[in-house]
């Protein structure tokens, strides 16, 4: 029987509505005199869950406009505070960063990732160790630079793919394949030898994995509705995917260990994340674990998975949004192409990473894209470690906290022409170093503070090089005879994507 979870949800919601009146909202006192954040009226049992819809960042924005920048919701049985202004974001990610630095338990993350996972780990020793290893060894500027040849090869291959496709190009497919290529080669040096048995492609396994990770399960919020998840086949699919993934990761690690035993070690410029993590593991074994958390096979597997999951969807989604905005803004498209073509010069035949620092307008385009279309519009959920406060309201320990980065980035109180694509708005910014660093809490697509994204330095050159390559070699148009503008509707998954597929006409350009 095919029962959608939303049908089940709707049924229960209607039943509750019929049987009971709306619970009154308001701003309940916490018992010690300090006030909890205001709470809109919600339904019995399900609370505010049915009110947040399939694109929660949008519904939450509307609710915040009515109830304020800090709201207390009940998602099923889970008390959840929503922060929807730059001032509230600053308190969460800077002023009271430590108190907000944990993560709630997320069912699908628990099923697919291990206790060692970093992105969904509660604040504590496991998380601290993984975070330290990732920042120090995997995502440093030096390591990111060492993958330059991978990005350049993959960008050149992508241009070749577009040329071979002829006039009509599915740009989504092209960009996802570039992103998968860059990330899987950086993470485990994929050279095509990890195709799975039965001809099933690696990309399909990772696709399933990401799709599942992006699914909010019913049981997490309303335990007595957990059967809906089973009925939907989510549990079975999670078990299957997790087993396949586990076997693949074992194979990848065993191959790397064997290669290290058998032959000379690769130079630093050709080592992938698995090589680096095995170094950390060996160094630790030599030194003796010292009572800390051991960085063993399980920790390495968790790290590979989390890097893949955190990096792929976000990077690819941002590039699709950037191309979509440029298609709808021909003036900005011409300006960025002019910049790239002038920088590469008449003698050049392709964009390299040396050109990137000259591409200031491209950086503005990416920044503006992330302002309007943060791929994780609600970041990842945070959880309080202790009783704390937010804009004067009391927030109890173990409360789930959502930061609506999307609403903050479109707040008309702090942005002019908030809903329009205007890359020039960032023209005065210093973009020479890490141009995404979160000092400005009106713009937090990467989060900030202790739990902020550690992968910015990895993401930025990957996106800049791919977009510059596509914009240098081709002129892009919508197919003749169709709509004159792209619909910019959204679709929710692991990240929030453009709903339409980018089928575009690519006209080769040469100097
Ligand atoms: C456009 C690209 C990307 C965007 C927009 C993005 C955004 C984010 C956001 C919003 C968070 C959660 C922050 C919070 O909860 O406060 C996050 C966490 C994370 N990101 Fe990224 N990310 C991107 C690319 C990457 C890449 C390329 C990597 C790794 C190679 C990466 C690794 C991670 C990890 C490991 C975490 C978890 C951090 C923790 O919980 O301590 N991300 N990212």
Automatic annotation (TrEMBL):
Please give the cofactor(s) recorded in the UniProt entry for this protein.
Answer: heme
Signal peptide start-end = 1-28
Keyword DNA-binding found: no
A single GO molecular function, which one? Answer: monooxygenase activity
**The protein, known as:** Cytochrome P450 71A1
Give the matching PANTHER family.
Answer: CYTOCHROME P450 71A2-LIKE, CYTOCHROME P450 FAMILY 71 PROTEIN
Q: Which organism is it from?
A: Panicum hallii var. hallii
Q: Does the keyword Iron apply?
A: yes
Query: The organism sits in which domain of life?
Result: Eukaryota
Please state which protein family the record places this protein in: Belongs to the cytochrome P450 family.
Keywords on this record? Heme, Iron, Metal-binding, Monooxygenase, Oxidoreductase, Signal
- Give the residues the record marks as binding heme: 453
Record's InterPro entries? Cyt_P450, Cyt_P450_CS, Cyt_P450_E_grp-I, Cyt_P450_sf
